């Protein structure tokens, strides 16, 4: 009988404050969708780091005849065979090095033509203008400075470049975007909590006569508060369901089908359904508990039961 009364009061409360309930549902849905999206963005960045950092190379570019005339690092002239052999031998001795690949001027010219053959500059280049290089894969991508300190400034070496630096800039940008999404989510969450508190207070005020009678007949504080708390929890749970729907539909239509970014951007290893599905219970739990706790503390101060 008590459970039936509580359920009936929940329905009455939701219908009586329909506009504010709708606002609570929308704000909770949007804030938790942003929350889930930020969690997925963090997973995506971490997955991309693991994928790309495993593929980055350190490149040691060697001096050619053109560099000897224009680059201060190559003031001693183009790299000699002895210098190349010594660089290769030193690389083979280093514990941080996994593999070393030599790229000749002809190979560099071929790769350049494959990538930039349509550019106006490509027609004026010749193989002897390209740089020989060693492409080094490290056991730990963080150990770039070991290679840089060992070979920068050495005779025959024009420069040492780390591809990880380029990726770091990308991941820093993605990190900023992720924090921006979390900031918007935090603002939306505050708005949702304020709406929940106001909705509960309006609902309690409109039913002050009923709650007064219940208090007079000896109803417990929890029994009086329960309908209001459950109203907020149900509204929040509907918003959480909407947030989960956004994440599921986004994964299905944007990543896998429809826009199909996973097919169009094959260089990016997108997070899969396992990452999405693990976030849904967390979002649903937050959508239920957050409004319920907000209503509980608001009622303690407002009803003083």
UniProtKB/TrEMBL annotation:
Residues 184-301 form the ABC3 transporter permease C-terminal domain. Its main location: membrane. Keywords: Cell cycle, Cell division, Cell membrane, Membrane, Transmembrane, Transmembrane helix. It is found in: Cell membrane. Residues 56-160 form the FtsX extracellular domain. It is a multi-pass membrane protein. It holds the Pfam family FtsX. Belongs to the ABC-4 integral membrane protein family. FtsX subfamily. Forms a membrane-associated complex with FtsE. Part of the ABC transporter FtsEX involved in cellular division. This is Cell division protein FtsX. It comes from Streptomyces bluensis. The lineage of its organism: Bacteria, Bacillati, Actinomycetota, Actinomycetes, Kitasatosporales. The gene is ftsX.
């Amino acid at each position: 009988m008590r459970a039936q009364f509580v359920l009936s009061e929940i329905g009455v409360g939701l219908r009586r404050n329909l506009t504010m309930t709708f606002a609570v549902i929308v704000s909770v849905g949007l804030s938790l969708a942003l929350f889930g999206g930020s969690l997925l963005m963090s997973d995506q960045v971490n997955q991309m780091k693991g994928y790309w950092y495993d593929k980055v190379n350190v490149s040691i570019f060697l001096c050619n005849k053109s560099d000897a005339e224009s680059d201060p690092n190559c003031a001693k002239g183009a790299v000699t065979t002895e210098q190349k052999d010594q660089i290769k031998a030193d690389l083979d001795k280093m514990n941080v090095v996994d593999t070393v690949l030599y790229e000749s001027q002809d190979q560099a010219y071929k790769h350049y033509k494959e990538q930039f053959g349509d550019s106006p500059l490509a027609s004026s280049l010749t193989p002897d203008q390209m740089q020989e290089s060693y492409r080094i894969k490290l056991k730990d991508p963080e150990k770039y400075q070991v290679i840089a300190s060992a070979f920068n400034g050495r005779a025959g070496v024009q420069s040492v470049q780390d591809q990880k630096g380029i990726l770091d800039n990308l991941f820093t940008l993605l990190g900023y975007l992720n924090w921006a999404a979390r900031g918007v989510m935090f603002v939306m969450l505050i708005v949702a909590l304020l709406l929940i508190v106001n909705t509960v207070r309006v609902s309690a005020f409109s039913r002050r006569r009923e709650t007064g009678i219940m208090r007079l007949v000896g109803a417990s504080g929890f029994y009086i508060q329960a309908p209001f708390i459950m109203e907020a929890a149900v509204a929040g749970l509907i918003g959480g369901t909407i947030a989960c729907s956004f994440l599921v539909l986004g994964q299905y239509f944007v990543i896998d089908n429809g826009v199909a970014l996973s097919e169009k951007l094959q260089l990016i290893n997108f997070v899969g359904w396992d990452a999405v599905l693990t976030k849904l219970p967390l979002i649903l739990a937050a959508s239920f508990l957050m409004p319920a706790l907000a209503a509980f503390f608001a009622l303690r101060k407002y009803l003083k039961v």
